[in-house]
Design a protein that fits this description.
The protein is mainly α. It has one domain (3-77, 94-228). The chain has helices at residues 3-7, 10-38, 43-65, 68-73, 101-125, 133-140, 144-169, 173-200, 202-223, 230-262, and strands at 77-84, 93-100. The longest helix is centred in the last third of the chain and has 33 residues, at 230-262.
Length: 263
């Protein structure tokens, strides 16, 4: 179908809007990670790191879209592990647990996210600890180049997940490209406000790290073939964010109430 036919097709517009919404929701994970990582840099490097990271996400996703046959091939099994029967049975494999390149990438990305979130939480809980995990973290997040490298690694994981979602929702490449460009544009606009909001609210930082920990666990589970519906994940994130918003509102109101009592 050519561009003119797509522009006049209501189904194509509906697919585009749906895909944009899905891509924006999926991009929240990536944006939270970029925000937390860039906030560890000196203030004059933060915006640069965010823009480089998000721009590389766009380049990576467009490059992946140009090789759809390769992307589809990533879901083909490359090896499998036999799962033995429980004790007391014949001992023959019950089934084979197959792994594709996509699964391996998701597992690696999930492990990285779990490790990253854990080290950040460790720093927040015990900021006086200057050994072990913090020394390792300081080496890895020691400058703009190191931060961008980590962003690239997670961009790869989130980009593959994003493109596979797009392929599953539409067969038209122009719709996929348009949705990806619009989504990355939204991420560019939202990056600085989100990062500043997270940086200015310490409790939100811990909440965001909890989100990353949960997302990492979900990626690992997905890589092992245990599919957790994304709707459940984002509903839990939205509920937690809503509770935190109420807590923030209560903290802002509390001094006013205390002042009235004192007077």
């Amino acid at each position: 179908m050519d561009i003119a036919a797509l522009l006049s097709d209501p189904a194509a517009w509906a697919a585009l809007v749906t895909l944009i919404v899905m891509e924006v929701v999926l991009g929240i994970d990536n944006l939270i990670f970029i925000s937390i990582l860039s906030n560890k840099l000196p203030e004059h490097q933060r915006t640069t790191a965010r823009r480089i990271g998000i721009s590389l996400a766009l380049v990576m996703r467009l490059a992946l879209l140009s090789t759809l046959a390769f992307i589809v091939g990533l879901v083909q099994p490359v090896f499998s592990l036999p799962i033995q029967a429980p004790p007391g049975e014949h001992g023959e494999p019950m089934f084979d647990l197959a792994f594709s390149w996509r699964d391996l990438i998701l597992i690696a990305g999930g492990l990285f996210l779990v490790w990253k979130a854990t080290t950040e939480i460790h720093e927040k809980v015990d900021p006086q600890d200057t050994h072990g995990l913090m020394n390792t973290k300081a080496k890895l997040v020691g400058g703009l180049g190191a931060a961008v490298l980590q962003i690239i690694l997670l961009d790869l994981v989130f980009s593959i997940d994003s493109i596979l979602t797009a392929v599953g929702m539409t067969d038209h490449l122009p719709i996929m490209i348009t949705a990806v460009v619009i989504t990355v544009g939204v991420m560019l606009v939202a990056a600085d406000p989100l990062a500043n909001f997270i940086n200015n609210n310490p409790t939100v930082v811990m909440l965001a790290l909890g989100f990353l920990l949960m997302i990492g666990a979900v990626l690992i589970a997905d890589g092992f073939g245990v599919h957790v519906p994304k709707g459940y994940i984002y509903a839990a994130m939205a509920f937690s964010a809503g509770v935190e918003a109420l807590n923030m509102l209560a903290r802002r109101k509390r001094p006013t109430v205390e002042d009235k009592v004192l007077h």
